[in-house]
Amino acid sequence: MTTDAVSSTPTASTPAVRRRWDVFLSFRGEDTRGTFTDCLYTRLQHKGVRAFRDNEGLNRGDKIDRCLLDAIEDSAAFIAIISPNYANSRWCLEELAKVCECNRLILPVFYNVDPSHVRGQRGPFLQHFKDLEARFGEEDVSKWRKAMKYVGGLAGFVVNGFGDEADVIQTLLNNVLAELSKWSGVAAFTVGLDSRVEEVLELLDLKSNSIRVLGLYGPGGVGKSTLAKALYNKLVAHFENRSFISNVKKYLAQENGLLSLQIKLIGDLSGMASHGSRCIQGMVLDFVSDIFMKDSAAAWGRFRGTPNFTTAVTWLKETYKEYFQHAAEKERELILQTKSFESMINLRLLQIDNVQLEGEFKLMPAELKWLQWRGCPLKTLPSDFCPQGLRVLDLSESKNIERLWGGRWWSWHNNKVGENLMVMNLHGCCNLTAIPDLSGNQALEKLILQHCHGLVKIHKSIGDIISLLHLDLSECKNLVEFPSDVSGLKNLQTLILSGCSKLKELPENISYMKSLRELLLDGTVIEKLPESVLRLTRLERLSLNNCQSLKQLPTCIGKLESLRELSFNDSALEEIPDSFGSLTNLERLSLMRCQSIYAIPDSVRNLKLLTEFLMNGSPVNELPASIGSLSNLKDLSVGHCRFLSKLPASIEGLASMVVLQLDGTSIMDLPDQIGGLKTLRRLEMRFCKRLESLPEAIGSMGSLNTLIIVDAPMTELPESIGKLENLIMLNLNKCKRLRRLPGSIGNLKSLHHLKMEETAVRQLPESFGMLTSLMRLLMAKRPHLELPQALGPTETKVLGAEENSELIVLPTSFSNLSLLYELDARAWKISGKIPDDFDKLSSLEILNLGRNNFSSLPSSLRGLSILRKLLLPHCEELKALPPLPSSLMEVNAANCYALEVISDLSNLESLQELNLTNCKKLVDIPGVECLKSLKGFFMSGCSSCSSTVKRRLSKVALKNLRTLSIPGSNIPDWFSRNVAIFSKRKNLVIKAVIIGVVVSLSHHIQDELRDQLPSVPGIEAKILRMNRQVFGTMLDLTGVPKTDEDHLYLCRYREFHPIVSMLKDGDKIQVTMRNPPMVKGVELKKSGIHLIFENDDDYDEDERSFDENLQTVSEKIARFFGPSEGGNSISDSIDEVEREKQEMGMKEEWKEEKKGRDGSHRSSFLLFFFIALPSFFLLLSWSWTRG
């Protein structure tokens, strides 16, 4: 659905040639990856649209990668998928700001968000931008606000709620395809061009890993440039760097023309002309006919003859020549001849990953500085390879390498390749068994041997390399010995031995590593640290995580005065020495899950610079009083220290504390001194099973913005909580004994989110309406369950109205919550009639009142103009639905057994899901024939109205329907019974598959179990290929009836669902029951399948005069449900008088309702708590289904 925004977006500028990317997708991965974004990306690719999608978004840091900025600049259009958490990512906002600067086509998709919220940064974006301003300042955030405002004002697409969003995806695809014709850079109305391009692509064989050179030769005007441009447009997405030079003559006519041509070419291929050609991956040269030499060798010679032509281009041309000489012999293997490099005297950098070199290696340029040969296929480097100037040797991921140099060990020493080597990277050379004698190498600074699993020991010469700064032996899991003499490693700064799971000891003279700053020993079996380690006076980071053999530290470890970070997570350490207090520069101390550490020494008081102290999961039973001296501590985490029962009173001295994490501790109460934590922003106390109260002093923590208390036995909150004027999030979920909220809660002017699900709160204070910033109120209860004050924390009792007749009312001020956009009040036992001022909750988008006892809804409900979801399942006394707001996208009134009347739904043009399962008294659903956006329609168990509704169903309502459930025993006779065979049709693409099943549920299946089932289980569709299953999926048969009557379910799967997209000629689609059944008593009585091809369901006009063989699929289904004499239009078949009669009755009822309210409180809700047998609760084993 498009928005009603009136702002326009810039059209995509038409480049000379097609850009690398047609579309850049900007999205928040956690919201849409795997759903809308993946579907859109798949459809775009299927249509040949080159879409850029960043798959690394979850692992990014704060600074946006250059490659993303390049992709944005090299994209012709942008699709920005704005979702609820979009503004929670700085990356997304940076992308959006950059997109807005590019002045090209922007297609916004508003995914589960309101465009007005995007424009004004309201709704879910309000808090995100506040957090961003706190982190980055208003100046940086202002450009993101402008970008959001601009995009929110564009005409875009709103995606909300149910289904596969296929329509929006198709519309987006159509828009992009329409724009593509403007971006090609090729003359309009070309004839026969596509077939020529395809012929050339076959010659190029893009699936091959080999190199290709293509020349186009012919007289002027025959279309060489046009063909070259069209071919370039086809190939551009395959290359990270590329060049298209459309008129070489222009460059050659200039002074120093050939030089300018070279600069242009190298600049395109490398990104910067001055940086050479490290990134060359492909190029296209379009030679104008009058300068294209008849002798192609002479043409290439003209380029090669210039000695200043960059090394990369020279290499590329030479490798072309040499490759084609050997292509016939080894067609699929990339082989280069070393002789190709003999003349490249200026070659300094060579990157030949996964390439095989043949010939004499002595021909390699002597001045080569950098060789990156990842995936080298050799077992050893040949002894005649001797580039004396080599500084960097990268052979990482070369799994065949066993030794670096062939022959004897002196081969390395005799040739002088090692004299100037500064970096050697052998990461992932898993078969490397030894490294050579490095004693002659006094320039080596960095040696990486990570994941060299074949290494058992290191050559002793490594201890003599004075120049070495970085040594990485991580994950060398078979390394058992480190050189005992390391006296030469005086300049070593980083030593990484993490993952060397057989390494038992460090060299005794480790003290010679006097420059060492990082020592990482995670996962080793070192039993003790040598005393000499104490002389590493420059050591800043020591990590001993998961050292299961290390039980003690040197008693004088405090001498490592430069330490900033110390980590012992999951180690066997038994004691923290008192000398810890001497580590005066320590900033981070982590003792997480150290199961043998029971106490923290008092000497920690001296760690004045400590900012982070983590002890999660340790058996510490108390914190020393001296911890209050850590005035710079910002993060104290003792979560799941289950023996910790109290905090010291000295905690008030933590003047810089920001985060205090106490999850899963045995703390019974907090000290009054906690009020001294003036800078604390986040206090977390989940699963504190003994926490019974909070102190009044908590009101003094003026900076607190997040308070999380989950599953604690508290009975009330202190009145002082109203003083937390900066509190944004209050989470009280599962505090089952919490019976009341303090009256002061109305003072929380900044509160946005209040979660109090599964509490015993029965009344909201009158001040509740003062929470003018409240946006989300989630206070659902467990169905049929209450917890009386007299019961203990583990006791439960199911209550009923006969035992508890207390009336529960919501405050009259409740309607003042004008910013509230989500209200979940399930199972509050709201009774009688809901007051008529509900329309004052003008921001409400999601309203969940399921499992309540009211009998009617107010007519003012229609005034909630942006309400998207109305959820009323299991409202068993609800008798009528009033006129509903046109903004609704989902209505769920399943299991409303007393529901008899529904107002005309014809105005709900955006409604996508309508669930009326088991509304057994319902006699009609007026307006259902007009629901053109409907994708899910569930009326299982609605036997009273099924025949009437079937006559109403029209092609309009069925056109977009994905799932339908309705009483019935038949499947259309034009469906293939049980099995359908797919056969390709010439020039027609399969668009969808419809599967129909008739199912019944045995009366032995209890109603309690039916309530817990989200859908009828155990029926699946399979694709069989040569009688073997290649794909299977469980049918989504939403709507579990409470009867044993037959029910018809229709499921339509669109073209991108695997049940459609995986089909190949001759495949069978079969519907079966799962064996063994998931639930006993489910019976599959009939099944049928129909395949929908292109044009089968594409006609939107009136079809009443068409013969059956001309009708669309939707029309056929409508006629199947309609009268046997044909015609499914309800205008002639439904009694208008009956409809008017129903509507008149409803209007009179609502008039009486309004009249009865005049003398009473307008905003009162009556709530009852009912009692049932405890055994009934045990039978349910409560499985809570949301909505």
Topology:
Elements: E1 21-26, H1 29-32, H2 36-46, E2 51-52, H3 66-73, E3 75-82, H4 90-101, E4 105-111, H5 115-120, H6 125-152, E5 157-159, H7 166-183, H8 193-204, H9 224-235, E6 244-245, H10 248-252, H11 257-270, E7 284-285, H12 296-304, H13 311-326, E8 335-337, E9 349-351, E10 356-358, E11 370-372, E12 392-394, H14 410-414, E13 423-425, E14 446-448, E15 470-472, E16 494-496, E17 518-520, E18 541-543, E19 565-567, E20 588-590, E21 612-614, E22 635-637, E23 659-661, E24 682-686, E25 706-710, E26 729-731, E27 753-755, E28 776-778, E29 822-824, E30 830-833, E31 846-848, E32 853-856, E33 869-871, E34 880-881, E35 890-892, E36 901-902, E37 913-915, E38 936-938, H15 946-952, H16 955-958, E39 963-967, E40 976-977, E41 979-981, E42 990-1001, H17 1007-1012, E43 1015-1016, E44 1019-1025, E45 1028-1034, E46 1037-1038, E47 1047-1054, H18 1058-1061, E48 1068-1073, E49 1082-1093, H19 1113-1121, H20 1136-1157, E50 1166-1167, H21 1174-1180
Parallel strand pairs: 1-2, 1-3, 3-4, 4-5, 6-7, 8-10, 9-11, 11-12, 12-13, 13-14, 14-15, 15-16, 16-17, 17-18, 18-19, 19-20, 20-21, 21-22, 22-23, 23-24, 24-25, 25-26, 26-27, 27-28, 28-29, 29-31, 30-32, 31-33, 33-35, 34-36, 35-37, 37-38, 38-39
Antiparallel strand pairs: 30-50, 39-47, 40-49, 41-48, 42-47, 42-49, 43-46, 44-45, 44-48
